[in-house]
Structure to design on (190 residues):
């Protein structure tokens, strides 16, 4: 097993608006690579178990959206919300949430989550394979800091939300770590 110090190379299947298509659904598929997302940028990525789920919808995504300008003031170029959901689900969730600042990135196959060592089985609640809840600060593809929720395991009975929240990550960027923040732990790929 090797410690992950850089984001893994993955191709994400996304949907983008294309007015040349016309009609009620003017979107087309676009492959986006990790290189395109992270190269030459400071990115905060937070991952969550699923679009439309309670904590993700009521707190996790909305707070990152709300604090977007404060993140930018700390040199963050982009905030990304990743979930093991397909592009259609992520689009509809973003639309319902009114997300304007946070880029919703579909990890439909779970490949990125798996290569990060963050893919867990949530079959006990009918989800199947999903991302564990975490956040990370990434500089030019290099992982600077990870905020991994405690209790990482398959079929976990709870959904902890203590350290991957927007306020904890923002405090870290400002150099004032919150007491709940955990020490950096790099994920492992096995």
């Amino acid at each position: 097993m090797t410690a992950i110090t850089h984001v893994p190379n993955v191709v994400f299947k996304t949907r983008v608006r294309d007015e040349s298509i016309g009609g009620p659904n003017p979107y087309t598929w676009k492959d986006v690579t990790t290189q395109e997302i992270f190269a030459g940028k400071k990115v905060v990525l937070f991952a969550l178990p699923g679009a439309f789920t309670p904590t993700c919808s009521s707190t996790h995504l909305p707070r990152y959206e709300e604090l977007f300008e404060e993140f930018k003031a700390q040199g963050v170029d982009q905030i990304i919300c990743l979930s093991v959901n397909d592009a259609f689900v992520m689009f509809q969730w973003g639309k319902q949430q009114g997300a304007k600042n946070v880029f919703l990135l579909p990890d439909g196959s779970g490949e990125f989550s798996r290569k990060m060592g963050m893919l867990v089985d949530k079959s006990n609640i009918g989800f199947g394979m999903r991302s564990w809840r975490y956040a990370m600060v990434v500089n030019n593809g290099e992982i600077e800091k990870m905020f991994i929720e405690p209790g990482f395991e398959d079929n976990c009975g709870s959904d902890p939300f203590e350290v991957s929240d927007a306020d904890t990550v923002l405090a870290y960027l400002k150099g004032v770590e919150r007491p709940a923040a955990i020490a950096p732990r790099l994920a492992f790929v096995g």
Observations:
- DSSP finds six helices and eleven strands in the chain.
- The first strand starts at residue 2 and ends at 3.
- The chain has one domain: 36-174.
